[in-house]
Every structure is written in C-alpha cells, then in structure tokens.
Amino acid sequence: MKLLFIAGNWKSNKTGTDATEWLRSFKSHITSSTTQIKNITLVLCVPFTLLSIVKRGIEEAKLPLALGAQDVSALPEGAYTGEINAKQLKEFVEWVIIGHSERRKNLGETDELLFKKIVLAKEAGLKVIFCVQNESVPIPAGVDVVAYEPPWAISAVSNWKAQTAHEAAVVCEAIKTKFPNIPVIYGGSASADNIASYIEQPSIDGVLSGGASLDPEKFAALITNAR
Ligand code: PGA
Q1: pLDDT tens digits, one per residue of 138-175
Q2: For labelling alongside 24, which of 52, 79, 212, 227 has CA 20 to 30 A away?
Q3: Does the annotation mark 102 as catalytic?
C-alpha cells in the first residue's frame, strides 16, 4: 500500500477559540476507520501562538495528527528579539515547514537563509517539510519531505488554478529522480474533490493543504478521500 503524507497548513489564521472548535469538529468528522489508518502520516501546521493549545487538544482527543510549525528561526537560542528557535519548537512539534513560497515572497527569504533554518531544525531533532516552487529550487540535505507548491496554484492568490495532477506529477517526478528516498507532495488548492487525482500519480506521495485545512469538515473529507 502506498504511504501517504498529508499536511494541513493554517497559515496566519485562527485564534485559540477557533483552534479548540476546529479540533472538536475535526474529531466528529474523522471516521473511526480513518483514525486507524496506518499508511497516512497526518501533520497539522499551526501558528506559533496556537502550538500549546493544539498540542494539548490533539493529546486529549487522541487525534491522529502530528503537530508542526510553519517556520523556524535561522538563528540559535540567544539575544534575538522576536525569534522562535528550533530548540523551543521541539518542545511542541515534530515537524516544521521551511521555505514556503509565501515566506520567500513576502519576507524575502533566500535559499541561503532557508538552509540555515534546516541545519538548526535538524540539530534540534525536528523533521523538515521543505517547500519548492519548481524542480530547479535547490534541496539541501536533511529534508524529510519535499512539498512542490507552484505559487500561482495556491488558493489564496487571485485567479488561482490548481495544477492538473498530470502536470504536477511531471514536476514531482523530476524532484524524485534527484531525491529518490524523500516523499514528494503537491500543494496548490488540494481538496477533497481533487485529492484522488493527485495521489494516484506514482510520483505524488500526498498533499500540503492550506485553504482546505482551515475547515475541519473539508480537511477530514480530504483525508477520507485520500484513503
Ligand atoms: P492552498 O495552499 O491549499 O490554500 O492552495 C497550498 C500551499 O500554500 O502550499
């Protein structure tokens, strides 16, 4: 059976109250057969402010979700006002997203900066979901999952359009050829309706879901349909 990797990314959305309600609703929508599936790794990446509350909520409700952060500092522990370092994150999460196109674009994050983040994340024992926007973006050692996310296909951009599964598969295949041992997932308007078309492609091992993960019912349906 194919091993699948599905990550939800809430981006800069939700308060503590919203997160608690999301977890309650997700639990009611995820079917018991889904909670027992062994071939899917499910990761939920939430804002820093929600890590504590979501970690507790996942544990209390025994949800089949690993927790992830959406970024990590490129600096170690120390006098770096406002930064959240990898060692601090490790108290809460197993996973971290590094290199999302929104951070590359809005915050000017460069490959050089992102490579520093990966080194510190790995030193702290975090697993890295590294986002690339095409097959040419350099992928450094230490990455655990590669997320191919064409920026124009992200549901939050105007005139977005999900990339067809076949086109996405060609890019994922190119990445896989260079990194045969790393799962490659697709991100860009993935939904319960189109998930099957992506994961039936041999080169696509799952999805990174932004917009659909905000709605617990839609995210649960996406997972159920992936199954
Ligand atoms: P989306 O986000 O699912 O909302 O399109 C995907 C991503 O940001 O990679």
Answers
A1: 999 999 999 999 999 998 887 788 899 999 999 999 99
A2: 227
A3: no
Ligand 1 pocket mutation pick from 149, 213, 218 by most atoms within 8 angstroms of CB:
149
Query: Does ligand 1 lie within 6 Å of residue 155's CB atom?
Result: yes
Q: Catalytic: which of 100, 102, 109, 135?
A: 100
Contacts 24+ apart (CB under 8 A), 101-109: 101/131, 101/133, 101/149, 101/151, 101/154, 102/11, 102/154, 103/71, 104/133, 105/151
| Six token digits for residue 169 | 């598969």
Residue from 132, 4, 8, 141 nearest 70 by CA: 8
| Ramachandran assignment for 43, one of left (phi > 0), alpha (psi -120 to 50 degrees), beta (any other) | beta
Q: Is 144 touching ligand 1 by the criterion CB < 6 Å?
A: no
What count of other Cβ atoms lies within 10 Å of the Cβ of residue 214? 18
- For the entire predicted model, the pTM comes to 0.96
- Ligand 1 close to Cβ of residue 150 (< 6 A): no
Summarize pLDDT for 44-84 with one digit per residue, the tens: 999 999 999 999 999 999 999 999 999 999 999 999 999 99
